[in-house]
Design brief:
Number of domains: 1
Number of strands: 0
Oligomer: single chain
Mean pLDDT: 87
Distance between the termini: 41 Å
Radius of gyration: 21 Å
Order of helices and strands: HHHHHHHH
Length: 180
């Protein structure tokens, strides 16, 4: 199994996290459009939750869609970077197959997202049915994110990068004896 540099694995995790976030968001926007809900509703809600969190520490920021999109994508990238680091450095968690990657990706995001998801009902006034809808939608969408994250990282770990094209052009020096 290929084990790249620390920076490479974190970068791949970031890219996988970004891709997972984009795919998840496309599904959310499609679902909202199909049900007659505003497509930016999830970003608006996340932004309002983040705004409440900032206000509690004395920082005034505007909530809504811009802050929500920023927080949402930053979390997707950062959590992807952490996943890329963990699965590349802990032997038991290395992704030997795509199914293992998919499973670990889903388990990872469902576990690490719980403290983040619980912030919404703590920061906002929500009915019991709204909290239930929030958790069902969020955990469903995080399955999509985790699948993409895990599959991309599993494919990354199975991929062996080609040797440098420059080295392929240079004559081999391995079997030469020094003159003299």
């Amino acid at each position: 199994m290929y084990r790249g540099t620390l920076a490479a694995e974190i970068s791949w995790g970031m890219a996988a996290g970004l891709l997972g976030t984009v795919v998840m968001d496309l599904v959310i926007v499609g679902f909202f459009a199909a049900t007659g809900m505003p497509p930016g509703l999830v970003y608006s809600f996340i932004g309002d939750v983040a705004q409440q969190g900032f206000l509690r520490i004395g920082v005034a920021v505007s909530g809504g869609i811009p802050l929500g999109a920023l927080v949402h994508f930053l979390l997707g990238v950062v959590l992807g970077a952490v996943f890329g680091l963990v699965v590349s450095r802990i032997p038991l968690l290395q992704l030997g197959s795509v199914p293992k990657g998919a499973l670990l990706g889903v388990l990872y995001i469902e576990i690490v997202s719980q403290p983040i998801l619980v912030m919404a009902p703590l920061m906002m006034t929500m009915s019991t049915s709204d909290v239930l809808r929030w958790y069902v939608l969020s955990t469903s969408m995080h399955v999509i994110y985790g699948l993409v994250l895990g599959v991309v990282m599993a494919l990354r770990q199975r991929w062996k990068p080609p040797s440098s094209p420059v080295r392929q052009l240079l004559p081999s020096t391995e079997h030469r004896r020094p003159p003299g």
